[in-house]
Write a structure and sequence with these properties.
about 110 residues; mainly beta; N-terminal domain of TfIIb; SH3 type barrels; 2 domains; three-stranded antiparallel beta sheet; YjdM; YjdM_C; Alkylphosphonate utilization protein
């Protein structure tokens, strides 16, 4: 039997490895074995296309024309977006863009203004 650590979330001993991650079948918590389990989940740092750290409320500029599903046109490069909100999902930025409405953007397609 392998010597896997207990789950840091619920202390279950039934953990198993799934590729590079460890998984707890009781609570569903997943973690990297290289991460320190006592530190908890570190907050994710969001960076723009050139490496600047983004924060809630920042203004960003779109750096590439982006096709928008359901819209008649594309979101043009150079469009300024004010008051972004950062989320931990596939698309990192929730925002409202004049002429398009509410939208989710990936941080790799914006530059901090």
């Amino acid at each position: 039997m392998t010597d896997l650590p207990n789950c840091p979330a619920c202390a279950s001993t039934l953990t198993y490895s799934d590729g590079a991650m460890l998984v707890c079948p009781e609570c569903g918590h997943e973690w990297s074995p290289a991460a320190d389990p006592t530190s908890g989940d570190a907050p994710r740092v969001h960076r723009d296309a050139v490496g600047n750290v983004l924060a809630d409320g920042d203004s960003v500029t779109v750096i590439k024309d982006l096709k928008v599903k359901g819209a008649s046109g594309a979101l043009k490069a150079g469009t300024k977006v004010r008051g972004i909100r950062l989320v931990d999902e596939d698309h990192d930025i929730d925002c409202r863009i004049d002429g398009f409405g509410a939208m989710k953007l990936k941080s790799e397609f914006v530059r901090k203004a």
